[in-house]
Design goal:
The chain has 156 residues and is α/β, with parallel strands linked by helices. The protein has five helices and seven strands. The longest helix has 17 residues.
Length: 156
C-alpha cells in the first residue's frame, strides 16, 4: 500500500476529477530525449539509466508493463525502452497495448531482448517495435539505435 497526495492506494478505486500520478514530473526544461525505461530487472534498469543519463537523456523508470502504461498516461515521453521478459505483461504485450491505445500509439519503442533469433526480432517489429536491441548491447549500439530513431522523428 502506498500514499500519493494524501490518498491511499489499496484494492478500492479512488475517484477524482483530476488524474493523480504516482510518478514525479520530469523537468519541462528536459532535452528532446525524455525516455521511459520499462524493465523488471533493477540492475539492468540502473545500468540503462546510467548510460542514457550519460548521453544527456532524462529517464523515468518502471518495473513492469502495467506501471509503464500508467506512466505513459500521465507524462509525455519521446521514447520508450522496453524489456521482453517481465512478469504479468511481457514486452510484446506491452508494445501491442501501446500501439492500440489512442494518444500514445505513435511513440517510438526500442524493444530489448536476449533472444537473437531473427524470427523473434521480426515478430517484435511486426507487433510494433520501432527498433530492437539484443542484450547485452554496447553503448555504441544504444547510441546508434537512438540516433536512428531521432532521425526518423525529425524526418516524419
Amino acid at each position: 500500500m502506498s500514499t500519493i497526495k494524501n490518498f491511499t492506494i489499496s484494492s478500492f478505486p479512488i475517484y477524482s476529477s483530476e488524474p493523480i500520478s504516482p510518478f514525479p514530473p520530469l523537468s519541462e526544461n528536459s532535452p528532446e530525449g525524455r525516455i521511459l525505461i520499462v524493465e523488471d530487472n533493477p540492475d539492468h534498469r540502473e545500468i540503462l539509466k546510467t548510460r542514457l543519463t550519460s548521453l544527456g537523456y532524462v529517464c523515468q523508470e518502471t518495473d513492469d508493463g502495467h506501471e509503464g502504461l500508467c506512466a505513459l498516461s500521465y507524462s509525455r515521453f519521446d521514447l520508450v525502452m522496453c524489456d521482453y521478459q517481465m512478469p504479468e505483461m511481457n514486452g510484446l504485450q506491452f508494445i501491442h497495448t501501446v500501439r492500440t491505445t489512442s494518444g500514445i500509439s505513435i511513440i517510438p519503442i526500442i524493444f530489448m531482448t536476449a533472444h537473437s533469433d531473427p524470427f523473434f526480432i521480426d515478430h517484435a517489429v511486426s507487433v510494433g517495435a520501432t527498433a530492437t536491441l539484443v542484450k547485452p548491447f554496447s553503448l555504441e549500439n544504444l547510441k546508434t539505435a537512438l540516433d536512428r530513431i531521432w532521425t526518423m522523428k525529425r524526418n516524419s
